C-alpha cells in the first residue's frame, strides 16, 4: 500500500502558475468561439480532480440552470468522438462515478483546463487544453 502511494506521488504533475494561467486563457479563447446555443463552462484541473479522490465539482449556477435536478448519468464526448459516461450528483453539483476513468484515460494532470460544451441535455463535448502546451 505504501508503495502505490509513493508511486502516485512520484507520477503527479504539478503545474506552474504560468502554465495553469496559459491553459485557462486558451480554454477561455476556445469557449468564446463555440456555438452560443450550446451553454459551456471552463474548468481548470487541480490535483483533487485528477488524482486521489477524482471528484469534479461543477459550477453551481451552470448546474441549476442547465442540468437535471436529480442524479443522472452524463455522457462526455472527447475531441475524437469517444464517449464516456460519468455520474452527475445533482445535490452536490459534480461528477463522481467514472470521472476517474475519464481523467485517467485522457491523461489529465494538474493545470490542464477543460471546456465543457453542453450539446444535449445530458451530453457534453469536452475540449482539453493541456498545461504542457505552455512549454511548446
Q: What does this protein look like?
A:
With 136 residues, this protein is an alpha+beta fold. The chain has a single domain (14-135), classed as At1g16640 B3 domain (Beta Barrel). 33% of the residues lie in helices and 27% in strands. It has five helices and seven strands; from the N terminus they run H-H-E-H-E-H-E-E-E-H-E-E. A seven-stranded mixed sheet has the order 1-6-7-3-4-5-2. A hairpin with a 5-residue loop joins strand 3 and strand 4 (83-89). InterPro entries: B3_DNA-bd, DNA-bd_pseudobarrel_sf, REM16-like. This is TF-B3 domain-containing protein. GO terms for molecular function: DNA binding. Its main location: nucleus. It holds the Pfam family B3.
- What is the domain total for the residues? 1
Q: How many beta strands in the DSSP annotation?
A: 7
In CATH, what is the class? Mainly Beta
Spatial order of strands in the largest sheet: 1-6-7-3-4-5-2
Task: Report the portion of residues in β strands.
Answer: 25-35%
User: How far from one another are the termini?
Assistant: 36 Å
What features would you highlight for this structure?
alpha+beta, 7-stranded mixed sheet, 136 residues, 33% helix, At1g16640 B3 domain
Task: Provide a compact summary of the structure.
This protein has 136 residues and is α+β, with helices and mostly antiparallel strands. 33% of the residues lie in helices and 27% in strands. The termini are far apart.
Amino acid at each position: 500500500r505504501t508503495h502505490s502511494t509513493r508511486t502516485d506521488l512520484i507520477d503527479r504533475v504539478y503545474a506552474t502558475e504560468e502554465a495553469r494561467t496559459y491553459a485557462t486563457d486558451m480554454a477561455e479563447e476556445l469557449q468564446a468561439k463555440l456555438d452560443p446555443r450550446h451553454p459551456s463552462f471552463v474548468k481548470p484541473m487541480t490535483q483533487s480532480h485528477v488524482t486521489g479522490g477524482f471528484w469534479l465539482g461543477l459550477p453551481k449556477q451552470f448546474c441549476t440552470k442547465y442540468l437535471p435536478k436529480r442524479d443522472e448519468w452524463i455522457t462526455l464526448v472527447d475531441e475524437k468522438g469517444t464517449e464516456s459516461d460519468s455520474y452527475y450528483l445533482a445535490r452536490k453539483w459534480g461528477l463522481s462515478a467514472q470521472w476517474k476513468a475519464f481523467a485517467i484515460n485522457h491523461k489529465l494532470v494538474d493545470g490542464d483546463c477543460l471546456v465543457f460544451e453542453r450539446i444535449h441535455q445530458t451530453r457534453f463535448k469536452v475540449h482539453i487544453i493541456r498545461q504542457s502546451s505552455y512549454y511548446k
